[in-house]
Amino acid sequence: MNPLFFKELNGYFDPNRARLNVGCGRQISLVAGVETGQLVGGLQTLEAVGKYAHEAGARSVMVSNYLLNGPGHGENGKIVFRDPKEIKQVLAGLGMVAPTISAHCAAYAHLSAKWGLEYADKLVPPPVAAKGVQYVEDWSEQYLLGLLETGTGAGIHIFGWFWGLWGHPVLHSGYPWIFGWDDMMAAGLARFREKTARLRTRANQLGAYLAHEIHPGTGAICARDFGLLLMATDYDPCLCVWGDPSHCWAGETWTRRFTSPFVAPRVVGSHAKNFKRLEGASTLMITEDWPQRGHQFCGHGEGAVNLESYAKMLLAIGAGDRFGAISGGDLMPMFSEAEDSILPLTAPASHLLGSCSAGIKWVNEHLTGMSMTTATFTDGMAARAK
Questions:
Q1: 208 in helix, strand or coil?
Q2: Which of 66, 117, 244, 286 could disulfide-link to 121, CB 3.0 to 4.6 Å?
Q3: CB of 275 closer than 8 Å to CB of 249
Q4: pTM for the model
Q5: CB of 332 closer than 8 Å to CB of 30
Q6: Which pairing describes strands 60-64 and 29-35: parallel, antiparallel, or unpaired?
Q7: How is domain 3-385 classified at the CATH fold level?
């Protein structure tokens, strides 16, 4: 890839080619959904997770890829998925509308395994990790291809995604302080284009959209990075963005990120998630003592992001219109992911508060029913004056 493409991206980037030409033309309204990745460890099955989500007030689910694995998956490297018709029936039976799939972990392992098992061994079955990095990389590609087939077979076409480390990990650290890394970037972006080619081709054939969640330590950690991936893949239409304003803590505000020409035309859905800062603590510290970090995930109503304004912005940039076109309806779920450094995810007793159910409740009370206006205040005044 020509180094000028990433040195002078603003000049080379073509906003017209970046535009995703899908839209439903219907009035889209928001409903409460839930990201199920936070529930998989405790509830284990799609049926149990769906039941919990329904009882907590969610109308939709972003289904973790782990919930779609079938019996015997991972044994001796086997790839097994549940029957797509069965998945569709389970979700319909729970009254879930417009579901999506979270493939974040599986997608991250695919590109990142090259740099060491530590980047992937928690994200793939142990027997797969035991066979080494090249096996993990190849296995992950086959797994993701099967996941696309399974998801679209169940009528689900939006896949939340983490593109992994296409280049050396130093490039994805957030501040690559070593010198002379143009060649690493060029080689890395060429690797991204080549290693994702089969996945992107199959996604386009199936009408699937791979929505990267811009996030530290992944293949795109800001809006401009996502622009690089679009250019590297010749503006592939399957490359999209999954919104999450809680990851905008390193200078690029959520307003700037999601209205950027690199990102705005590709947003197809979003989490509802919030964060706050712990004064005086670094957001980059090397620790898993989460309550001590400068960046703290928190309840929807207490953080740095005004989620009501954020939801309105999503509608304004066309995210709802695109979601409706892809999902075939007039609803866009805001998938609550109410992580908290203090509260438990699920309430240990009926009289105690769990962040997951509290998050769904908050979305229902503050965002559900929100839709894009078709006329302005001044239009109404002008009509009355005639």
A1: coil
A2: 117
A3: yes
A4: 0.92
A5: yes
A6: parallel
A7: TIM Barrel (3.20.20)
